[in-house]
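EI: anyone free to look at a 127-residue chain?
SC: sure, send it
EI:
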Amino acid sequence: MARIICFADNAAVVHAIQHGFVESEHSIRLLSASLLTSELRKIVQNFAPDLILLELSHATDNPHLYFFLRADRVTRNTPIILVSSGKRLAQQAEMLGADGYVERPFIAEQLRRALNPHLHMQHAVAA
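SC: here you go
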């Protein structure tokens, strides 16, 4: 069972994630992508995720979350998958050094396909 944190504020993204993993054994934690607070940092550190989904949106300047996650000792090596409807998502993912990306709109199956290689990698490391 993997622990997944999803930083998202878009209702469609949250809905797709909730329904995409309804019957999975994974533990999903949904958090706001809008604000990086000390409370949010503690939640992430205590949850110690195996995988992170990070929504990038035009409404918020949230790449700072990416840099926090890469700088923190708990999430430094955790795979981060970006989610966005932006036309330059592939470029952003490459520039940031993200482990992957999913373009919106997407269906649950597309999301699972993007995450599965990283989830299977976590199971292989744990075994």
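EI: Strands lie at 3-7, 27-31, 51-55, 80-84, 100-103.
SC: 👍
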